[in-house]
Amino acid sequence: MNRYVAAALTALFAVAVSGCAADESPHVLSGSPRVAVQHGQITLDGENWWPTGVNAYQLGTDWDINIGCGAEVDAEEFFASLAPRSLTRFNAYQTLAIDRNTGEFNFAALDAVIAAAQKHEQLVIPVLTGQEGACENNIFKQRDWYVSGWRNSMQPAVPFAEWVVMLAERWDGSSAIAAWELIGEPETSVCAGFDCTLELRTCPDDSAVVLRQFVDEAGALLRGASPSHPITLGLVGGGQCGTAGADFEYVNESPYVDITQYHDYGADDEVLPGDEFDGLAARITQSRNLGKPLLVGEIGIPAGTCLPLERRADAFANKIRGQREAGTAGALLWAYVPDPRRDACTMDIGPDGPVWDMLESLW
């Protein structure tokens, strides 16, 4: 989406939702929290749990209701197809709770995801916003957003601070919530150009302090609205601005981070990718120092025309087994889509194929 379309969408949302109140009747779901963090381990129903599953960012898309984020997925069918005790990470962005026709809040599409997960006794991690702005306003979040923008800038209907409380209070009663994710792949960089490509970013000296303050303050709001569910931060973990080297441990030391994360890309044949400062092995050690479990929240391996699907499934299995032995606390693959592009080299994981057989036979 180009910047003019993005600006128009942002303006449309600002006008449409001005003065409109959020749904006053939360979608109340029965149940109690099933997931906790105890002694540096993730537990499910009181027993140690090493979750596996997929990222299915598109689950909240409903073209009759919202602007969508990828293709539509039948949530009932999706959760019914998963192995028991699976974990799914998905986008629970504010844009997906706004009716594209009326401009008012409409939680039906997102509520349906939680209801289907709970019905099939599956677990999910809702991601409350993303760094790059994809499926939101397409604006890359910079340092100023972490300083104050998250409290006072519309995103697109209410500031992120209000969205955190609104959604957490709405779903706090659901046993399907494994953990909340404040933001996916955060970094407190400053951009020199509109596109904010990696080459155009700079990293201020106080980046780690700014990110830690955001996590402490936004995490406190989230914990206040949902006291019993764990919180995670979707860090890439590879040396991004604000979390390079020792800053990874400093930011994750926040009392409002219960589960740390690392995202594994670009090293398809390596069990523990990265160097001694910002690699997965270093992140495992830092998380262990904090007494917190580390979830490999994204493992992406392209396949299709570039790699047979069966070989990718084997590569996933090799990574998962090796990373578990090294001390990680779970693994989620990138990414489920209902319409995989079989004639291209992509990270698409379709609704059937060898990846699913691999996940079911892992342990």
Question: Can you walk me through this structure?
Answer:
The protein is α/β, with parallel strands linked by helices and 363 residues long. It has one domain: Alpha-Beta Barrel (TIM Barrel), CATH 3.20.20.80. It has 10 helices and 15 strands. A 6-stranded parallel sheet has the order 6-5-4-14-12-11. It has a 3-stranded antiparallel sheet with strand order 1-2-3, with no helix packed on it. It is globular and about 45 Å long. Mean pLDDT is 92; it is low at 1-26.
Gist of the model:
The chain is of the alpha/beta class and 363 residues long.
Main traits of this protein?
TIM Barrel; 10 helices; 3-stranded antiparallel sheet; alpha/beta; 363 residues
Q: How do the strands and helices of this protein lay out in sequence?
A:
Layout: H1 3-17, E1 35-38, E2 41-44, E3 47-48, E4 52-55, H2 75-81, E5 87-91, H3 108-119, E6 123-127, H4 143-152, H5 160-171, E7 180-184, E8 190-191, E9 201-202, H6 207-225, E10 231-234, H7 247-252, E11 260-265, H8 280-290, E12 294-300, E13 303-304, H9 309-326, E14 331-334, E15 345-346, H10 354-361
Parallel strand pairs: 4-5, 4-14, 5-6, 7-10, 11-12, 12-14
Antiparallel strand pairs: 1-2, 2-3, 8-9, 13-15
Helix pairs in contact: 2-3, 5-6, 9-10
